[in-house]
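Friendly challenge for the regulars: who can give me the structure tokens for this chain first? No prize, just bragging rights.
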Amino acid sequence: MNVQGKHYRTIWLKEDQPEVVQIIDQQALPHEFRIVDLTTADEVAHAIKVMTVRGAPLIGASAAFGMYLAALHAPRHSREAFLAHVRVEGDKLVATRPTAVNLAWAVERQLKAMEAASDVETMIETARHTAQAITDEDAEFCRRIGEHGVSLIEDISRRKNGDTVNILTHCNAGWLACVDYGTATAPIYAAFERGLKVHVWVDETRPRNQGASLTAWELGQHGVPHTVIADNVGGHLMQHGMVDMVITGTDRTTYTGDVANKIGTYLKALAAKDNGVPFYVALPSSTFDWNMRDGVKEIPVEERGADEVKYIRGLHNGEVVSVLITPENSPAANYGFDVTPARLVTGLISERGICPATEAGILALYPEHKR
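First reply, four minutes later:
Bragging rights claimed.
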């Protein structure tokens, strides 16, 4: 997608230095566009942990490149020592963020690919090719999500005789959360490129404000009309007919259609259900959990540090500062995600098409996962 008119992905190998992985520092946005070099698996794990990179698909791609860097630094005197090293590094990567299923998926895919290689040098080359394949695949899958999802926006546009389609989204499920295109934003970008009138209500998404800082930034870079709103405004907008549809992303979705996403998504789904507003979730197949059935009971919900709730970051007199907004001694709880039950989800938009958020609907698109 575009940054000041230039195309970027969110992660790539440095030109002429394939041992260096480059990422966009999402902690610096929206006030500074900064590119960071990563040279070890530990640096990748730290970037994931502190959310220099974030978003389920991008976390998966980052983990894939982290495994490639682990391979570069692994012992080369024996195949067994090499594999022991990359497995340990893989465990470190998986431990950084518990909710996003793409993380473990990417690490496991890398391990299987390397284990199938015959010698150490081939394993290193395999790790590089697999990391690149995962990133290319994610970009292509997100492009396809846009191609499938744009039909929903086109239908609403026709019903409104070409008037603006108002779409509400939560957190950042844009290209910054993926390798390119985004999940929830992919249909929006596709509609915008086709000349449809669209407008996005951007939830600020406390406590880290990924909507206000990231989604608003990337929509602005691409020229898509949008308005940032406080998290609690969505229900009011729906009551007054100001939202035509909701599209969110997801960090893990069960094969029965339960959706884990950034905290606050469940409340948007309840408001959408009460007001007859269609609620869609966009995701690549790597975000499905093919083992979990009951999302509310089974999906692990990450609890992050209290300071994210107690402090807020922003630009003041040209400098990014952190400001305490609660009484200093008040405790704070910081649950990173909630689970929206499948009954509240109108449909899922994946790279293979649109389906109901049901076991039968999902497995109709992915029959290879039938038990």
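The longest helix spans residues 120-159. The chain has two domains: 2-137, 148-369. Your move, everyone else.
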